[in-house]
Amino acid sequence: MSFKAKKIAVLGAGLSGVLVAKKLFQNGHEVSIIDPGIFLTSEKKKEIWNLESFSRSKLSAIDIDVQKNVRHRYQKKLPLAIGGLAEFYQAVSIPFHEKEFSSWPISKSDLDPFYKQAQEWMNIKPSHEHGNISPLAKKLYHAGKELHKDPYYHPIAIDFSTCRHCSICNQVPCPWDARFSPSLLLQELQTQGIRVLDRSLVTAATMKQGKILNIKVTNLENQKESTIDTDEVIVCAGALNTPFIIKNIFSCDFNHIGKNLMLHLLGNVIGFFPKPITSKDHFEKWVSFSSDYFDSNGKVRGIIQQDQMTGPQRILEYIPGTFPKSLFTKIYDQLTQLLVIVDDESCFENQVYEKNGKICVQYQDQKKDLEKRAFLLKQAKKIIKKSGALATITTHGKSIFHACGTCRMGVNSLDSVVNFEGRVHDRDNLWIADASTFNSSGGVNPSLTIAANALRIADRI
Ligand SMILES: Cc1cc2nc3c(=O)[nH]c(=O)nc-3n(C[C@H](O)[C@H](O)[C@H](O)COP(=O)(O)OP(=O)(O)OC[C@H]3O[C@@H](n4cnc5c(N)ncnc54)[C@H](O)[C@@H]3O)c2cc1C
Ligand code: SF4
After folding, report:
1. 237 Cβ inside 6 Å of ligand 1
2. Residues 6 or more apart whose Cβ sits within 8 Å of residue 247
């Protein structure tokens, strides 16, 4: 059969969108990528980095409304930027275990070739192959070893030959592009021929019998409108936005759109050490501990991971109200922390919905997940104490940074939103390739699986 290049529109230039665009472009298609965010140039990244936290940055952002009765300390704004959340992430890149796919219509072996490709494209290597492990990471590793907690130096998408080891590597873009950056990759792809429409939003679509013929795009800077003819449309706007695009622009109205939101239940144990152990000029997220990953019934619980302290100022945001905050900036270099990431179970009622044009998150922590977190935090405390901590504080994370699951995969529009290939049910040429297609959240950081799944879906188009 002779190959016919297609006109393909990718909506969203985050981690999944940029990798999908690269794959389709390599496969010979004509690709346009559309995103309301700004292009993060090196200058812009430096500006944001100097402000230390994107909540205080000048980036435009999506407002998120969170129901008061649930997790109300969520970040209320997410940045709109080319590159998406991966411009602000910490680059830990661990594949899911095969058991995590039990609720998916595909198995890990379907993803394996794409895991490999994503690792190559994102320059992911085990952290000890990348750089010089810090003395603190070694201390934690050895404590974990003595406690039989199966420590290992996890894979990471940072090039430590250019990393400057700044005091924060979390919630800020890397101005030195040491961390994998979708926006940097997209700049390269743009020079090769991919069409990039930044600060642009798809506002409508012309459809005929379930097939999209073209999309209307508005430039947010000058309000100019254009029409793009398209053979295929792939939505990659992230799990909090994608449900509304397929509902409002492409008129899909299935029961599962926006439902089954998963966020990962997070928690931290902060340890206080007798002497300084955290240097302000060392990256500190090298090691994970996997012995408690499964419970006694073989169900996924989650992972314990070394966590970068957030900088002397931002640490205050994490300290519970009753503690004397000024003390923490003084003893900052005597503190370090471990993070726990809990695989939260999919629950139909946990969801994103729209009210007055604003995205609202409704999420109730499940009892089973809270138990898993309590267990992992207890183990994390043992590791940090074994490393020499005199005292510990436990905090509970409230982030929406790992959102997934709002357009899950399945058989038909009654049980899901897309089929196993990522194609939206009852639509000929509409696809979703971001974290919203996940059927489980997994017990580890999600980006590598998002990348692999996006490449798999792109390969089917
Ligand atoms: C501080 C932080 C630390 C993290 N650390 C890690 C880590 O160490 N390891 C890990 O695996 N994961 C980590 N993550 C999570 C990871 O970054 C995300 O899971 C991942 O980037 C999500 O990818 P995505 O492609 O689904 O969506 P995104 O990357 O969020 O991309 C969505 C894109 O869609 C665009 N968009 C929004 N609305 C629209 C619209 N209406 N139309 C078109 N485009 C739209 C956005 O501008 C954005 O570019 C972290 C996240 C954060 C914020
Ligand atoms: S620690 Fe390294 S990778 Fe992280 S922001 Fe700083 S320079 Fe970039």
Report:
1. yes
2. 253, 257, 258
Confidence band (pLDDT; 50, 70, 90) for 74? very low
Give the nearest ligand 2 atom to 177 CA.
8
pLDDT (tens digit, 9 = 90+) per residue, 246-267?
999 999 999 999 999 999 999 9
Interacting residues of 347 by C-beta distance below 8 A, sequence separation 6+: 260, 364, 366
**3-state class (DSSP) for residue 79:** strand
- The Cα 68–Cα 359 span in angstroms is 14
DSSP at 431: E
For residue range 286-337, list pLDDT tens digits in order. Answer: 999 999 999 999 999 999 999 987 666 566 666 666 667 677 778 888 999 9
Bridge partners for 338 per DSSP: 269, 306
- Between strands 77-79 and 195-197, the pairing is unpaired
Q: Where are the alpha helices (DSSP H) in 98-153?
A: 108-121, 127-130, 135-146
Ligand at minimal distance from the CA of 281 is: 2
pTM: 0.95
**Three-class SS state of 162:** coil
Count of beta carbons in the 10 Å neighbourhood of residue 275: 7
| All structural domains of the chain | 7-459 (3.50.50.60)
Distances (CA, A) of 231 to 3, 201, 207, 248: 14, 18, 11, 20
How confident is residue 68, by pLDDT bands cut at 50, 70 and 90? very low
Query: Which of the pair, 224 or 76, is modelled with greater confidence?
Result: 224
| Closest residue CA from atom 17 of ligand 1 | 86
Task: Judge whether residue 125 has pLDDT over 80.
Answer: yes
Contact (Cβ atoms closer than 8 angstroms) between residue 286 and residue 305: no
Ligand 2 mutation pick, 93, 176, 177, max ligand atoms within 8 A of CB: 176
Which ligand is nearest the CA of 174, by number? 2
Best of 89, 93, 158 for a ligand 2 pocket test (most atoms within 8 Å of beta carbon):
158
Best mutation site among 161, 174, 308 for ligand 2, i.e. most ligand atoms within 8 A of its Cβ? 174
Structure tokens that stand for 10 in this block: 């990718």
pLDDT of residue 55: 54
Q: Give me the DSSP letters along 256-306.
A: TTT-S-B--EEEEEEEE-SS----TTS----EEE-TTSB-TTS-B-EEEEE
